[in-house]
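subagent[fold] <- orchestrator: predict structure for attached chain, return tokens only, no commentary.
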Amino acid sequence: MKIGILGAGNISRKVAPALVALPEIECYAVASRELEKAEAFAREFGFEKTYGSYDALLSDPEVELVYVATPHSHHYNHMMLCLEHGKNVICEKAFTMNAEQAKQIFAAAKARSLYVAEAIWTRYMPSRKMIQDILDSGVIGKPNTLTANLSYVIANKPRIYDPALAGGALLDIGVYGLNFALMHFGSDIVRVESSVAKMDTGVDGMEVITLHYRDGRMAVLTHSVYCRSDRMGIIHGDKGYLVVENINNPQSIQVFDRNDGLVARYEVPEQVNGYEYEFREAVRCIGEGKPEPDSMPHADTLAVMEMMDSLRKEWGVVYPQEQ
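subagent[fold] -> orchestrator:
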């Protein structure tokens, strides 16, 4: 399947090795607002075509799937442009700025019978099933609490501090903590509590989010753009606990008993870079005529967007485009 990329920035450069390694993907075209940037990207990763505008790439009839790798403040406009050109889409997280934009994208894709998906890689990785299989085995007993943190020193990046770029910790890294909880504790949430510290620009710089589940379980999530955290995810049960090394790209899963004794350690399968799974699923689903991925169905993307909308409303974080 011939793929085109909108945006030749850092995330595209991280993803590209996975595209190169997949036999079912043909690295066909890349577009950037700066043609020289697209040309340099194409030379490095072996893409056939380069374009100095997104419209030009989308007008190429050979492009079958478009990876949107622009800032999430632009995701809605760029995805809508893709759909209007009849292209299937896989878009970086956060999917859109808010839930209303996501609903409009899904409606537009449905009307055109096109595939559209959020490319949040942890949803597609084999580590997800590994973690769930361990929980389902009962080795840690009945899960009761979940904690997860993800923090990086990124406060100086425009995409983080600039409200016009839909900045803040939540949409950039908090989305991973929320997805970790939803993947392994589900979405039957009855109450959400949070604390936030804002940046000088008015967007969220760090937060603690507590999800209260109907059955009494709790998930506590911490995100910050000011420090480096251990990125651990821990699920605690009445017989022991499970530790996931790096919720942003799980490397290992360790199981401990109630006395802190190591019961088992599982390494995730060797991977190209972790991004290959979302594209492999996209190709499969498009081939089968499916409008959305099994790993990240539209309802799940919408649930996360609605939760982030509610949190931002509570914090008073509004992006200029929403006013």
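orchestrator: received. Logging for downstream: The first helix runs from residue 10 to 21. The chain has a mean pLDDT of 98.
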